[in-house]
Structure formats: C-alpha cells, structure tokens
Amino acid sequence: MYSIALCDDETEELNRTQDSLNQYMRQKAIRDFAIERFENAEELLYRMKYKEYMPDVLLLDIYMPEKLGTTLAKEIRDMGSTSRIVFLTSSREHALEAFRLEAAQYLVKPVVEAELFAVLDKCFRDLEEEAKKYLLFKVDGRIRRVPLADILYCEAQGKRQCIHLSDETHLVLNMTMGEIGGLVLEYPEFTKVGISYIINMNHLDTLNAREAHLDNGHSIYLPRGSYGVLRENYFRYYCGGGVDHEGCDLQSIP
Question: Which residue of 62, 114, 149, 241 is 20 to 30 Å from 23, comparing CA positions?
Fold first, then answer.
C-alpha cells in the first residue's frame, strides 16, 4: 500500500492537492493507498517520531507559520527517513536547499496537475525498485534502511529478533519471526531453517548435516530435521531460478 502525507497550513491547498491525488490514483487504477493530511509541521513530526508513521511520499508546503517546510524536511531526514519529498510552494527561493535535502521535486503553486502526476510516476517507480532491494526497520527510534544483500541471517532471541549483517553488526528488533518472515521470505534467496532462523542463501558457503557455514566465517547449528529441507532449498535456488550456474547436481551437495 502506498502511504502519502500532505502538509500545508492552508485547508484549501490541502483539498486541492488531495483532489489531484485521488484523480491520479483513479487514472492509474491504484486502489491500495492512504492519504493523511497535516495542517502543521509538528503534527506530522510527532506521528513520524512516536507513532511509527512512515509515509512513502511527502507533499510539503514550504511557507508554514510555525516551521518552514525545508526545516521540517531536514528533521525528517535526520530521523533516517528516505521518504520521497515533493515541495509545493509559491516561490522558487528555496529550490537549491530543497535539492540538498534530496527532494524528489520542487513544484511552484498553482501546481500543474500534469507536472504533479509526472513526479508521482517517478516516485512510485523508484519506490517499486527500491522495495526490491531494501527493507526498512525502526531501530532505537530511527528508521534504518537495510540492503537485502547485507542480511546474513535472522535469528529468534526470545520475543525479539536479531538480524546479523555482513559488516559484523546486528540489529535487535521488537518483531516476531513471523513478521520478519513476512518481509524477507518473498525473496528467493531467503529460506527458513527450523523455527529460529532465516538464512540468506547468497551468503551460504558450505553445508553439512550439522552446520551451515556462511561466507563471513560464522556457522549456524542446524535444528534436528532441518538439513534435508535446507539442502533442497539451497539446490533449487543455486541451480534453479535464483542463481545461474551450469552443471548443478543435487548429489554434489553433501
């Protein structure tokens, strides 16, 4: 689902922008989306800081009475957010600053609907591509973007999950293994091992009936009964659709 936040101190502008967004979604036949409106910067910041609100796209006015939209955007970036930010404003005065904040676009009011739609097209294309390569986690109150390729394995530790990364660091998350699995198991390189582990098979170096050895030197002791399933999944990924190799033979894997 796409999540879009609008922040403008003028109700008429909020209404106009929301109408344009609804029109865009109808044209693109996008049904799974949510639009939230904010009439001041602090309300939006509060939602993002304390309510785990992570919109995909932010449409921000710049000239708001309590805080400039560019100041708001900087605070959002400082939180670790990678949301696409689009500024909608009456002046080009802050254009350079906007792009320093990695804004997706800077549109001058009155916004031409076709220009807004073109910007949204690019935002959603980028989001779709990014979703294939990264996961977003909230760690210590900050949003952390983690490349899929950097995840070695996920390990259940009581009611929390530990994600081990290729740079020898790890993330401890207040999530269930089912929630972690819902994020990573849609990617073919990840497979579940028993009830406590999910392994990225791109980092699997060698495998035997007792242990899975990863390419960073770590080993995972395999739960009873898990070896056969892991061996088969690894073969299917390595020699099937996941990785292109010739001469694959299941019997070559011990």
Answer: 62
> Which is nearest to 120 in space by CA: 222, 35, 244?
35
| 180 and 77 inside one domain | no
Q: Could you tell me if residue 52 is inside a domain? A: yes
pLDDT higher for 118 or 141? 118
pLDDT in tens, 173-202: 999 999 999 999 988 899 999 999 999 998
- Site of tokens 């294939």: 132
Q: Strands, E, within 115-196: which ranges? A: 134-139, 142-147, 151-157, 160-165, 170-173, 190-193
Q: Residue 89: give its domain's CATH number.
A: 3.40.50.2300
Q: Judge residue 246's burial from the number of C-beta atoms within 10 Å of its C-beta, 0-12 exposed, 13-18 middle, 19 or more buried.
A: exposed
Q: Measured between alpha carbons, how far is 8 from 189 in angstroms, rounded to an integer?
A: 43
How far apart are the C-alpha atoms of 116 and 84, rounded to whole Å? 13
